[in-house]
C-alpha cells in the first residue's frame, strides 16, 4: 500500500467513525469500489482504529480523568478506600461505561465468525443503513430529549451497551445505534452522543488491540509507513469531526444523517444490482 492509499483509508476512517453513518460500511464500500486499495490487513485496520479512538480520548481527556479518579475513590478496597469521590455521578459513570461495554465484548466474541462472513453481506449493510436511518429519524423527531449525562443510570447504561453491540452488523453504526436508543430513553441529542463516544472508548480500543495481537502475520500487511500515515490522518480528521459533530447537534437535528444513510443505502443497492459491487 502506498502513502496515497493510506491517506484515503485514514480519511474514510476519521470521517465516518464518530458520525451515525457506519464507518465499517464505508470502509467496505471504498475497498470494493477502489480495488487498488486492496486488503490492508488486520494489523493496519486495528492500529488505525486505535488511532481514531485516541481522538476521543484526547477530546474527552478531562472528563475521562475525572471519571477514573471518582471511580477509584469509590472503590471499597485499595489505597483509595478512605477517600470519598468528589462527584458520585462520575463514579457511577465509570461503572456505567464498564457495564455498558460487557454486551459488545460478549457478543463480539460469540459472533466473531458471523461478523467476518454473514454480516459482511452488502445487501444486509444496505438494509441496516436504511432501517436505522428510519429509527434515528423517528427517535430524533418524537423523543422527549430532556435527560442529560448526569441523569444516566446503570439500567440505561446496560441498554445503551446492547445498543452499541448492534454495530457488530455493518450498516447499523456504533454511534447511530447508541444515539438512537439514547434519544428513545429521553436523553438530549448532545448527551446521547457524548455517552456514545464514552462507551465506545473501551470497546473500540479493546477490539483494536485484540485484532492487533491476534494477527499471526500471515495475512496482508500494509507496511509500517502506510500504517503510521493512516493512523495520524484518522486521528486528526477524527478529532475535527468530533468537535464539529458535537457543535452541530447542539443546535441542529440528526435529519441530514438520516437522509445520507437512506441515499447511501439506495446507492449500494443500485451498485449491487448493476454488478459494480459484489454482495459478499
UniProtKB/TrEMBL annotation:
<feature type="transmembrane region" description="Helical">
    <location>
        <begin position="41"/>
        <end position="60"/>
    </location>
</feature>
<dbReference type="GO" id="GO:0071555">
    <property type="term" value="P:cell wall organization"/>
</dbReference>
<feature type="transmembrane region" description="Helical">
    <location>
        <begin position="225"/>
        <end position="246"/>
    </location>
</feature>
<keyword id="KW-0812">Transmembrane</keyword>
<feature type="transmembrane region" description="Helical">
    <location>
        <begin position="258"/>
        <end position="278"/>
    </location>
</feature>
<feature type="transmembrane region" description="Helical">
    <location>
        <begin position="93"/>
        <end position="115"/>
    </location>
</feature>
<keyword id="KW-1003">Cell membrane</keyword>
<dbReference type="GO" id="GO:0050380">
    <property type="term" value="F:undecaprenyl-diphosphatase activity"/>
</dbReference>
<keyword id="KW-0046">Antibiotic resistance</keyword>
<dbReference type="GO" id="GO:0046677">
    <property type="term" value="P:response to antibiotic"/>
</dbReference>
<keyword id="KW-0378">Hydrolase</keyword>
<dbReference type="InterPro" id="IPR003824">
    <property type="entry name" value="UppP"/>
</dbReference>
<keyword id="KW-0472">Membrane</keyword>
<comment type="function">
    <text>Catalyzes the dephosphorylation of undecaprenyl diphosphate (UPP). Confers resistance to bacitracin.</text>
</comment>
<dbReference type="GO" id="GO:0009252">
    <property type="term" value="P:peptidoglycan biosynthetic process"/>
</dbReference>
<keyword id="KW-1133">Transmembrane helix</keyword>
<comment type="similarity">
    <text>Belongs to the UppP family.</text>
</comment>
<dbReference type="Pfam" id="PF02673">
    <property type="entry name" value="BacA"/>
</dbReference>
<keyword id="KW-0573">Peptidoglycan synthesis</keyword>
<dbReference type="GO" id="GO:0008360">
    <property type="term" value="P:regulation of cell shape"/>
</dbReference>
<feature type="transmembrane region" description="Helical">
    <location>
        <begin position="195"/>
        <end position="213"/>
    </location>
</feature>
<keyword id="KW-0133">Cell shape</keyword>
<dbReference type="GO" id="GO:0005886">
    <property type="term" value="C:plasma membrane"/>
</dbReference>
<feature type="transmembrane region" description="Helical">
    <location>
        <begin position="121"/>
        <end position="139"/>
    </location>
</feature>
<protein>
    <recommendedName>
        <fullName>Undecaprenyl-diphosphatase</fullName>
        <ecNumber>3.6.1.27</ecNumber>
    </recommendedName>
</protein>
<keyword id="KW-0961">Cell wall biogenesis/degradation</keyword>
